Amino acid sequence: MTGFLSQFEDGAAPPDAPPATAAPPAAPPAVPQDAPARPPGPPAAPAGAVRPLAPRGGGIEAVEHHVEPDRGRRRRLAARWAAAAGALAALALAAALFWHFSRLVEVPDLTGGTLAAAQAFCREGGLVPEVAEVYSLEAEGGTVTAQGIAPGQTATRGSRLPLTVSKGADPAEPIALPDFSSLTRAEAERWIRERRADNLRLVLEFSDSVAADGFLRLEFRAEGAGAGSYRRRDYATVYYSKGPESFPRNIAVPDFAGKPRGEAESWAAANGVELSVAESESDGVAQGLVMGQSVPAGEKVARRDALAVVVSLGRALVVPDFSRHAPESAASAAEGQIPVAVESRYHASVPYGRLVSQSAPAGARMLPGGVQKVTVVYSLGRPYLKDFRGMSEGDLPQAFFSDYTAKGASVTYAVTYVDSSEPKGQVVGMSDYSRFVPLEFHVTISVSKGNLPPPEKPPEKQG
Q1: Exposure string over 377-392, b if 16+ CB within 10 A, otherwise e
Q2: Between the CA of residue 54 and those of 40, 48, 61, what are the distances in Å?
Q3: Which residue among 167, 257, 295, 443 is the one 20 to 30 A from 180 at the CA level?
Q4: Strand 427-430 versus strand 410-418 pairing type
Q5: φ and ψ at residue 86, rounded to 5 degrees
Q6: For the chain, how long is the longest CA-to-CA vector?
Q7: Is a pLDDT exceeding 90 seen at residue 223?
Q8: What is the mean pLDDT of the chain?
Q9: Does 385 score more than 90 pLDDT?
Q10: Residue 67's pLDDT is what?
């Protein structure tokens, strides 16, 4: 700019200015008509000539210079200043336009993008995002669904840019669940995706009974929740089948014969083999050892294959025939290997000392791990009603219970109180006594009131 203005200084012309032309000579000044006549002077000198001055006091004659004004120069200076002013105005306009357009930001299409991306654009463009969140089934949470300034339009830096952002599906909205048993896995996945039921998980499980992609079950996490009250925020899991699980047959089966049962069980658990155990008596294999196996040793099986083993229960014990033993020797008839309990009870038809029953039949085989006590009952014959006269009334309950009731007889009694000189409470009479009676029998017992004086003694005879 300084160089440009320096062209307009006095005496200087811009490089591209046209050459100056000589101005026409100025006309002589007009002389008024009434002015007095001037004496004639020396002849006029040509323009630009130096006229000698009249000598003063006889010295050197002075020369007078006459300079005519250059009117074209003034016009050139005015044109130059006008050009400078126009250039300055153009620069100012350009600066103003640059400042104005530098504050404008073209807004792109932000819909479908994330809120984070829209906020990053606003930071870079100097715009202020104005976010309004709404629930939406069509857009994921955090997705811009609408914008207040259309794509391609401009906005001034510092202005607000309205944005509508999805909050995702409404978690409180009730959802009617379908009958998943009638849907395939693909249909169930599509249903979950379309309704944005993000808390409803679909899980695949192996199943030996349901074909692949078939429905297995529906479970709700919250207690009391069900298909009729499901909301999008509720947690539930729908299970579908992956079909049966298959494994390579690469597990070699050991020889378990003669080995403890626990060794077979540990091997099966470590290799995922389904082990079944059967037990059987054996006279030659000790209790708890493997006697046989369904898969030969060395053959290979896969995970979840079945393997059966037979484990020995040891030598079986035979229950004796206790009818061949007396009550006194019955307890030792099993040689101490089977516990025996001996009881004696009244019986209406089995004679005394004969076997009435035994809890395990003769010849039954009992394995060492399942031995049970054998109860044998021997007959006492028919009950014998004792003579209880002279006994105290207070001893009658114990006597009848231990002698009859505890041994299987239902012998009962009734007490009547009679006048007697015997001590009060003493049994003085019985309706029946000292004989064999049926298993069910009732007797009446007379007990003294002790209210009569003792009888007089007869006088002694004198010899």
Answers
A1: bbbbebbbbbebeebe
A2: 14, 18, 5
A3: 167
A4: unpaired
A5: -65, -40
A6: 245
A7: no
A8: 85
A9: yes
A10: 59
